[in-house]
Amino acid sequence: MANHSNIKLWSIGGGKGGVGKSVVTIGLGISLARLGNRVILLDGDLGGANLHTMMGLRFPSVTLEDFLLKKVPRLEDVVLETPIEGISIICGADDILGAANPTFHQKIRLLRELEELPADFVLIDLGAGTSFNILDLFNHSPGKIAVFSGVSTSLQNVYGFIKCALFRKISREFAKDGEILALLYEEDPAGEDISCMDDLVAQVKRVAPEKCFRLLKALRDFEVFLVTNMVKNDQDFRAAEIVQSVCADFLNIKPQILGHLLADPLVEVAINQMVPSLLHQRDNKIVRGLEQIAKRMVRLGRHSFPAWSPEEPKSAKSSPLNIFKEAFESSS
Ligand SMILES: Nc1ncnc2c1ncn2[C@@H]1O[C@H](COP(=O)(O)OP(=O)(O)OP(=O)(O)O)[C@@H](O)[C@H]1O
Ligand SMILES: [Mg+2]
Questions:
Q1: Domain containing residue 259
Q2: Mean pLDDT of 231-241
Q3: Which ligand is nearest to the CA of 129?
Q4: 46 within domain boundaries
Q5: Does residue 264 line the site of ligand 1, with CB under 6 A?
Q6: Which residue, 40, 49, 142, 310, could crosslink 119 as a Cys pair with Cβ 3.0–4.6 Å?
Q7: Percent helix, strand, coil in the chain (nearest 5)?
Q8: Which of 22, 45, 54, 280 is the pocket-test mutation for ligand 1 (most atoms within 8 Å of CB)?
Q9: Is position 208 within any domain?
Q10: Which CATH number characterizes residue 127's domain?
Q11: Model confidence over 21-43: pLDDT tens digits?
């Protein structure tokens, strides 16, 4: 069922370690392959690579490092088959000094070749944290998935991750514009902190109104998809709405909820036994959620994203979510 109009390149990030980014990458890869798509997984956890182990490969013959160091000419040359039909993998460069911090030119070469890979979907499993390399891979991907669990620290982390990615995008957009960069990262000229995106938009409108349209466009084009993982109860299930609402209020963006994945003890068994296909056993709780998300990913490219107006009215101040939001912003 390979289609040619879907979003090909997806990054799976989220900031916090251990929330299931790699599990979600593999699970979605299997679901997409089962729908008839050719899938390539890329271990973007530069310096801490373990996606191949989780996929059942012990000693990869080539890794991303061979491409980064130009031992092979093309990214395609480091694609390896996996035990699962329809899924190939580009393994990360494990424990090799320097790979965690590719040079600017290595990174540009990598980004350029990603789109050329022979696949319907390329899924990049990002490492934890908000280093520029992680943010750049995330921002470079038209499909941006932020994974988190329902615990409050994970919510704060994922909000912080989305905020860092958005600030990175704006700072790249205005890379040569000292005036905007100063507003973005420093106090504004009137001495007030930029505490939310509305403040930045207002300051840009005041200082350089001709640049406002570009800023609003950058906000509008920043599409993020949310996946809540390890959902155990109704509160976890509603976590994505909280992230969505906080992002709307403080960042003027509205991430879309892509789906929820239930907590399932079989996941740990699949990982420990290096048998990823266990993730898709018929009675596995996580399968339905993965299948629904994969189907949405296939459909997404065929329709334009719903428009999001940065001027859209905020939710009522009396909303119970505001307690969370205040905690969020003060801790991020
Ligand atoms: N839906 C789930 N149900 C139960 N356990 C899960 C689920 N998703 C992930 N886990 C558990 O969480 C562990 C960590 O998952 P994973 O390695 O995918 O996290 P990660 O976000 O990629 O971490 P890192 O940032 O270190 O790369 C897994 O080994 C598994 O035991
Ligand atoms: Mg991982």
A1: 9-161+223-309
A2: 95
A3: 1
A4: yes
A5: yes
A6: 40
A7: 50, 15, 40
A8: 22
A9: no
A10: 3.40.50.300
A11: 999 999 999 999 999 999 999 99
